[in-house]
From TrEMBL, chains A, B, C:
Alphabetical UniProt keywords: Copper, Metal-binding, Oxidoreductase, Signal
Lineage of origin: Bacteria, Bacillati, Actinomycetota, Thermoleophilia, Solirubrobacterales
Domain of life: Bacteria
Protein name, entry field: Copper oxidase
Pfam families assigned: Cu-oxidase_2, Cu-oxidase_3
Stretches assigned to the Plastocyanin-like domain: 92-194, 212-309
PANTHER family, per database record: FI03373P-RELATED, MULTI-COPPER OXIDASE
SUPFAM superfamilies: Cupredoxins (SSF49503)
């Protein structure tokens, strides 16, 4: 009863609650051209854990793997792996895909994994789709969407529904899922309401183990993990998710955020394939830490720097 | 303050929010006759993991254990272990016990564990009761409720309170708790509001390790775990809980649900003895996967099929 | 949209929702004098697990460590480690620090760790502060706040903001963080709204591993963990947090509480550095168990007694 009442309260007050910042754009078709491509990945490019003052040899930190990368139409040419409006450098997650409620998203996927020649796929959370765009391997039921062979392509058709507002994972769900996710075949969708204000800064934070390290976006230890930046007055948004087999607690120093239930938090659990977005209007200049508060994870590299500068 | 405000909002709007689908039934006494009985349990009856294409020998998958089973009054005759309205086959969890707010529930429990002759008990979450119905062993304090010897019986008296709406675990909390829970001595309560609509389909999902596998209702891998079914238009309810020592993330493909805080999710953390119910009006025909998104758990069997058919 | 609506509902109804129990006190400055001091700690003073009937030798349960302890102004004299209004005995967590929204908190910290002579610090969750009071070690950026040498002191200046209502961890975040937290260098802040009612009973519950045990406030097994007590009619508050690398599920027998989203729970996940407060008006006399429902944790000692007596 209390639960239902809360939802009704939300509905009755919905018209008031809408943060109308822009006229509703007409529903769009958003096309993404993505490929699975081999990569030689260094989880610790500066070869050290600066906080514990420990060095690492490249033999411990470099890993051959396969990642999702964005391409120009027809997979003619790879695009730089830096989402617009993000502070991300070249990192493990595939392209951050944006849409608004009502949009249709078409993801044209091609398997260019010429090294391992494993099958791959894309499985999307949060959006609406028919079983033929599910991308999850189930013998006797699933089709080509779940088992895209090397050299082949497949187009996933997705719908940003009213229930899709938020941030969501996508990842490989083909027969090679286990190795592929361990190697970094994941990325995020970010869906806004029809008239919802877009953030000034949007940070992708994927918490996942990789080899012997605990990584953020495929990097371990401050100086390697992304340095997120903003200025006072900006609306910042953190897109947080986890992949793998462990639960994490995402923490940002010197800040708090309001969760959907109205409570203020500065630390929040996120388990495998869970995802949430965190927003605040920035007003705390400084060089801050963000990290997983699971201590062993923090010690294995799951920590980075968030810098708020006046200028 | 925000938190308190949310609750008041819920209260003020309560009268509007009630989904009144039936006249309030008079408060009832619900009696359940349950026994702890030995069972020889096969976690993987078809002896294979169809997705990874791996076979298992019965020597790896069969386990002698003790489970809760429903009986006719006076423990005269065991009842089939298939809750009405559920898609469950014969599975590990004890009977799904239903009540509405205001009801008194009497659970008559008998220890028929003639194989191990261990003490057993029943401890119920979510409902109101006196210490004498707690069922939890504490030397110097607890009574016969917590330590029912082989051949003995005990009646637990429980109250479905206004704070009891939802789904809840019950499980052994006697001196044999550790082995008994590992072997499957658990089940669920499902409490509706006085006038709340009952679902058309109700699925019990207990996520728990068993031997070397990660099971749903005591079964591992698609083809062994329950195949839940529904039709478009039906109100489906998933009763999800975990037992054991691990956290899980429950995920259903192609669907989202609204959590109590108003956010839409398709993946949700559930830790040991946590429980939640998920509801939606079905409208997505197809053969879908549901699974724990903790990857090692999924690979060890915590995955099943949910089928929505037009006819 | 639903999320925003809920927040607006909360805001609109805020005036009604305020539980006004006292005139707003003028904002205060709250000073705490705290030191890091060596301690020889016995996790199992009665040397036994009463539930499993197993004995332990002091060689297995005693640990030399460093803890936070409250002092009189100028660190002249240590104060008894028993927060007012709490049922805590001498336990591992440092002083429970109280404030109300609008207050300024000054924590004067001195490193008296004469045994190990490690650097130490205090990092506070939930409150507002400048980077110079962050207390977290980051080479090249952090200052003396994050690396207080033996014999030195530092004053942290904290602000109880509107977003600070609730309970929060504090802990060592210096270069010795890993060993220091494992040894118990943590405590809690409890922030009330300006006019919010203070509880009659307030219980600090820190769930953390220590050596081979899983402890509550540094103690393992019933008879060693704190015995919390209350009377019917009292407003009781549980301040729950976790430290370390594991997730827990906090459970109290025979009781339920309302979470911020309006749902009733009797079991709730808490991960490292997460924290929440639980409140209810007591009306269930009896000797009850509270424990972590992760079974291995419960078996390793994370369980205690809550006693509600009529008199």
């Amino acid at each position: 009863m209390t639960r239902a009442a809360t939802l009704v309260a939300a509905t009755l007050l919905g018209a008031v609650a809408l943060v109308v910042t822009a006229p509703a754009a007409p529903a769009a078709v958003r096309e993404y051209w993505v490929a699975a491509v081999p990569a030689t990945w260094n989880m610790v490019p500066n070869q050290r854990d600066a906080i514990m003052d420990v060095g690492y040899d490249p033999s411990e930190t470099v890993l051959p793997t396969v990642v999702y990368r964005r391409y120009t139409p027809g997979w003619k040419r790879p695009l730089r792996n830096v989402p617009r409006g993000s502070s991300n450098q070249d990192l493990i997650p595939g392209p951050l895909m944006h849409a608004r409620v009502g949009d249709r998203i078409e993801v044209h996927f091609k398997n260019l994994d010429r090294v391992y020649r494993r099958p791959h796929s894309m499985h999307f959370h949060g959006v609406g789709y028919k079983p033929s765009s599910d991308g999850a391997y189930l013998p006797g039921y699933s089709g080509r969407d779940a088992d895209v062979e090397y050299g082949r392509s497949y187009t996933y058709v997705l719908h940003a529904l009213r229930t899709s507002v938020g941030v969501w994972p996508y990842h490989d769900h083909s027969p090679s899922m286990e190795e592929s996710i361990a190697g970094g075949m994941y990325g995020m969708l970010s869906i806004l309401g029809r008239r919802e204000q877009a953030p000034d800064r949007e940070f992708v934070v994927v918490m996942a183990p990789m080899g012997r390290f605990q990584t953020i976006d495929g990097r371990a230890f401050v100086g390697n993990t992304p340095v997120f930046t903003s200025r006072p007055g900006q609306l910042v948004q953190w897109d947080v998710m986890a992949m793998g087999s462990e639960h994490h607690t995402f923490h940002v120093h010197g800040h708090r955020w309001v969760t959907a239930d109205g409570t203020d938090r500065d630390t929040q659990t996120v388990g495998p394939a869970e995802s949430f977005r965190i927003r605040w209007r920035e007003h705390d200049p400084g060089t801050w830490l963000y990290h997983c508060h699971v201590e062993t994870h923090m010690m294995q590299g799951m920590i980075g720097i968030y810098r708020v500068t006046q200028r």
